[in-house]
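In response to reviewer comment 3 from the previous cycle, which asked for concrete evidence that the modeling workflow produces usable outputs, we include below a single protein chain processed end to end. The sequence was submitted unchanged, and the resulting structure tokens are shown without manual editing.
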Amino acid sequence: MKKLSLLLPALLVLGGLHTPVLEPNDDPLIGAPAPVFNLPGIDGKTYALSDLQGKFVVLEWLNFGCPYVQRHYRTGNMPSLQKEFTSKGVVWLSVVSSAPGKQGYYEPAAMNEHNQAMDGAQTTILLDPEGDVGKMYGAKTTPHMYIINPKGILIYKGGIDDQPRASDKATKDAHNYVRAALDEAISGKDVTIETSRPYGCSVKYKR
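The workflow returned the following structure tokens.
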């Protein structure tokens, strides 16, 4: 395993991939406390995960320059989820870990304009330009989705649905893992599918 971890960065470079190399402890476990953080929102407020105990929280890694993200917003898939569950008291935080100068990074005012154009309906967008929170969570793609229960426990992580290369129609008809997990958890049931493979563009980390 140690040899593999040493070889991985080289393999990623040779393969032309842009997925960030993350440390093993940067992948939080299902059933364990979600990593806590404080990040500024584009609304001028600072959001601390510790202040959100008692609520379900969704973390959505976001990059408006990513075609996968654009598809989920263009079809109304992401905004409809945001509207549906924030109306039920869920806190939905879209996290941008793009570094300055890289795809998806915007100053707060410009980020808000892009979000309005995409009909975003999340609680707010959080800015993580250093990528610290993204790496803490092991976020690899946009979108990469996480659900935290009211006790602060991570109950889902992975892709938004089962259609990584879907057409617009297939996106609307896909099995949405996030909706299913939230419906089950809010109703007091165990989450049937706790993890899935995330897909999308690589997160544009600083390094």
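Confidence is low (pLDDT under 50) at residues 1-25. We consider this sufficient to address the reviewer's concern, and the full set will be provided in the supplementary archive.
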